[in-house]
Amino acid sequence: MRRAFILAGVLLAMTSPGEAQRSGADVTQWRGSARDGIISGLTTPGAWPEMLTERWKVEIGTGYATPLVVGDRVYQFSRIGDNETMTALDAASGKVLWQAGYPATFTMNPATKQHGPGPKSTPVFFNGRLYSIGMTGTVTAWDAASGKQVWQKVGTGPEMLYTTHAFSPLVDGGNVIFHVGGNDKGALTAFDLNTGAVAWSWTGDGPGYASPVVATIDGVRQIITPTQVKIVGVDAGTGTLLWERPMKHQFTSNSITPIVSGQTVIVAGTGPLFAFAVARRGGQWATEQIWENTELPLRFTTPVVAGDTLYGLSGRNAGQYYAIDARTGKTLWTSEGRQAAHASMARAGDLLFSLESDGELVIARNNQTAFELVRRYKVSANETWAQPAITGNRVFVKDVTSLTLWSWN
Questions:
Q1: H and E: helices and strands count for the chain
Q2: What is the pLDDT, as a whole number, of residue 282?
Q3: Nearest CA to 344 among 380, 317, 290, 291?
Q4: What's the rounded Cα separation, in Å, for the pair 9 and 231?
Q5: Widest CA span of the chain, in angstroms?
Q6: Whole-angstrom Cα distance, residue 216 to residue 229?
């Protein structure tokens, strides 16, 4: 089902280019430009239509990377044949503007074969360049205008890894930060944006599935990320370990991007959802648990925050939406079960967007008392594990092998 193929560069479906499309804020990295799942510049209709309009669809290759939307271009990182490939497309028409790649033969772990050969990491766009990591750990800086490689650090090769480079990079200061390596080894590494030279590295644990966030706590800017068996905070400027906490389960327990509010960190896995405070006392960093919610085990869906409420999808009962009081961890409500195995969630104002893994886009309202459905739209006949890019009145959906633009009028 997730076979690789050579891109034909042919549009499968298209209406008039740009017709009824309205652009919003750029989507430059994992979970949006602010890395928090918040959609900026959304244009909502007076009444939601019964169906969305398919503007174009392009066969683009396999992988879970979020499409990035910058100005009038869309960038998609994917696997085409044996090559890991970056493609630039015209956002209005889907026309391929350039395409560049490199050989990346990869042997999957049998336990993850159903999820395909990737890539699984979403690149980051910054200052006219794209930065990506592939399944074998190859890190590449691309010129976004032409597709030319600016620099590249070749990975370790076709290892049969379990948690294989699903970590989506972030830019901080003059560095782009990746977690290279795999399984129980590898380094959280800051590369110079312009040269690729290593600015710092931390080798305390291998990468997990999850992606990091950056936050300033007690005056110190730090990278907060789950690893194989921990959640850690490292100094963003030096890579020095500041603090760490154990994670209770391996593998899928490190698949949730942390949520940081002030000095509070919220994280989850197949075990409990929990919150802890980070503080520095007498020159020493420490963490202290605030609350734990054992009712809603999570798997792959990173929740979103609206005020003091956390919204997400639990793995309980084959998928239940939920609301939790972010201050106390108390469950406010859960939806009926059998919603979805996985969902990619985002928020715009009082609206929640959830792209479920079965190709349905769910729109609901922030509601602290019950699950309030607005609309459901079918946006793919195939599985949709990649986070969508939502901007203006447009939804860019990456499924198993194709990229589709949908819009509402």
A1: 0, 33
A2: 86
A3: 380
A4: 42
A5: 64
A6: 23
